[in-house]
Amino acid sequence: MTDQTGIMLCGHGSRDTNAVAEFEALASRIRERLPGRNVEFGFLEFARPIIRDGLDKLRERGMTDVLAVPGMLFAAGHAKNDIPSVLNTYQAQHAGMTIRYGRELAIDPKLLRAAGARIDEALERAYPGAIRFDTHLLAVTDTLQERLHEQGIRGFAGDSVAVYIARDSTDTPLGYAAIGEEIGKYRPITFLVAVDLQLQVSSVAILVYRESRGAEVRRQRFLRQYRGKDGDDPIRINRDIINITGATLSVRALNVGVRKSLFFLEAAFDQLQPN
Fold first, then answer.
1. 168-185 residue pLDDT tens
2. φ, ψ for residue 25 (rounded to 5)?
3. Cβ–Cβ < 8 Å for 205, 191
């Protein structure tokens, strides 16, 4: 890289101001890691600055060579088509500027460790007295799928569920937790449901929220409503769980997901007991 080389971080954009702030913080961290290097960011849609704004700032500072990096995990349509289209159009309109496009983030061991750390954090918050968490991958049975169908609930998409047993210093179980995923309006919401030994909800945590709206469901003030619920509770919107205006589909998805997790943990209870 030369002194005229700048870095452009390209994001998708979100209506969620917290998501926008996180992306801006990422750009700031990159600046800290690359002192003296011009680093800008911009979004494809839903938020400002847009990608063109970031490129303008780099050009105004005399950057003639730009390394554009898509801040996206996989090479889907936005990373393969939409962002390159914006970059190519800008380059064609500004003679003397070269924009080189990098690859998507892809799966990296650091990302896997970050995902694991998020699960660990949710488990430790749910079971502060635990010193160990045993991990199991348990099968989804046909009987359970039939029970869900009878309740009018869409069955599990996969054939197994990750389950954790929290244990204290005497190796006594404190509770069980399962990771689930349900579609909100457009995208999946990944969450963890923790229960006590009576299979009543002790904690719900959002691990990954991908929708552009409705992020309020991540707040503890909302999630605390699930505490004490068990498999016999219908968990109805605006009866058992107070809705959030603008996040109705996400609330419905979580209601279904919590019920499915409770049904699964009930069905798997015998498998979780010591032989």
1. 999 999 999 999 999 998
2. -65, -35
3. yes
Q: Coil, helix or strand for 132?
A: strand
- pLDDT (0 to 100) of residue 275: 58
Q: Are strands 160-167 and 173-183 parallel, antiparallel or unpaired?
A: antiparallel
Specify the pTM. Answer: 0.72
Q: How many C-beta atoms lie closer than 10 Å to residue 225's C-beta?
A: 18
DSSP 218: G
List, in sequence order, every beta strand (DSSP E) within the chain.
Answer: 5-11, 39-43, 65-70, 98-101, 132-139, 160-167, 173-183, 188-195, 201-209
pLDDT digits (tens, 9 = 90+) for 16-45: 787 888 899 999 999 999 999 999 999 999
DSSP tag of 140: P
Interval 62-81 mean pLDDT:
92
Interatomic CA distance for residues 22 and 26, integer angstroms: 6
Report the length, in residues, of the chain.
275
Does an H or E element contain 112, and which?
helix 109-126
Q: Which residues pair with 173 in a beta bridge?
A: 167
Distance CA 94, CA 84 (A): 15
Tokens of 108: 């990296």
The CA R_g of the chain, rounded to the nearest whole Å, is: 23
The DSSP annotation for 17-37 comes to HHHHHHHHHHHHHHHHHSTTS
The burial class, CB within 10 Å (0-12 / 13-18 / 19+), for 184 is buried
